[in-house]
Amino acid sequence: xxxxxxxxxxxxxxxxxxxxxxxxxxxxxxHLHPENLMIMDExxxxxxxxxxxxxxxxxxxxxxxxxxxxxxxxxxxxxxDVVLMGVTGLWGNRAGDIAQRYGADVHYVRARCxxxxxxxxxxxxxxxxxxxxxxxxQGDSSTGVLQSFISDIGDLCRRFNCLLxxxxxxxxxxxxxxxxxxxxxxxxxxSQKVLCGPAGITPISFNQRALNKIKARQSKVKSYYFxxxxxxxxxxxxxxxxxxxxxxxxxxxxxxxEAIAIVCQQGLKxxxxxxxxxxxxxxxxxxxxxxxxxxxxPNHRMSSINVIKIPNGVDxxxxxxxxxxxxxxxxxxxxxxxxxxxxxxxxxxENATEEKVDLxxxxxxxxxxxxxxxxxxxxxxx
Length: 382
Hints:
The protein is α/β, with parallel strands linked by helices. The chain is built from twelve helices and 13 strands. The radius of gyration is 21 Å and the shape is globular. Residues 378-382 have low confidence and may be disordered.
């Protein structure tokens, strides 16, 4: 079974296409070889397009999406800095945990589970705490919540002289994101989600406001590895001679460059539209089986990570095991606040197609019926 090709339709990682896999079979390069530096430069330009930004301090961190979160927190925060975390699932809490470890004074504004934050709740929290940094996940993969009005939050942050950090790990490429226009100060994404690249390398971007905050620090950044002033020199972001920072994997760079090139060829708007259309098809199929989406408000549902309530009497583990054992198809369970409550189906990049949607619906129906004895009839209610 280990050698079988699996269809990864959980919450990530996603399947890499053959072009990406072929690219990663290229010969290893040294981290400062001219060819490797050229690939890094091409990746930087690709990230700027994906993020819709002109920030010079656009680069990658060698690490998973968590590395982007930690880099944002450790560069922007000093002991005692007040930070406000928007919580729509797991990731606001995770960011708060990281910020506390760097000495920040952490506060939270929380949405009901399955709901997005209201602008009024965020504004009231700003008035209460007057934060120096505000964090929000555009899409929280644990709940499937898509947070709207990021641009309004950007304006609010400017009025309070607060930096805005947006986690776009699971949403980039499946929902509109305009870093510069929305006044986002730091953003990072996952290479292994909608981009369908290899895990382990995280695109991230800092604007000038964020860099000014870092330059004005009274203390050194507490992590050498995540220090953007050093990492940015390695990536050639500041117009100075490149320095050695760490040994970046040329294999991951090959894969990420190819994955970004594929998105650029498709066009961001086309890619986003495809994800939205496939998610709508999946949601209608779920409703036709008598099941319910976890997020009640359709406009606040992610199109990349689709979260579905588990019907009464259904064991999600048995359903997931059935789908994997018989069809080599991954369906994920819940995470954090949704553990044992939901299925999570990822329509990520290569797997955001009508054919894959119909496949996962067919297998999900069969798996539920065969593991629980529940018959899912068209338009029936459980």
